[in-house]
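Risk register update: the risk of archive-format incompatibility is retired. Evidence:
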Amino acid sequence: DLKSYMSDVAMDVATPVDGGSFSIGMNVVADMGADGEDTITLPASAASLIGKKVMIKAPSDCSAARFLTVATQASAQKIDSVDSIRLESPNAAVTLVYVAADQWKVF
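Archived output:
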């Protein structure tokens, strides 16, 4: 049955850091860097990414003063028509889906 099939599905969990890159799948940022202004970049554009998602969970010390910037890999790449988004709340989360060439969408 579907419930049994789905219950065995596990995801790898990446733990990216300031200056690094997110992975396809689940990404948990452990804590903010010393300066409190972390930037982590989305994967580079590729046709094979269409339909893939990047799930991001900010740390508990994330805030308006200690924010996490989710940046695009190149100027052509956009997140809902912008170059980056910021997570500014403790334990904030966002899911991005690569829907077409250079296009990430927030879900």
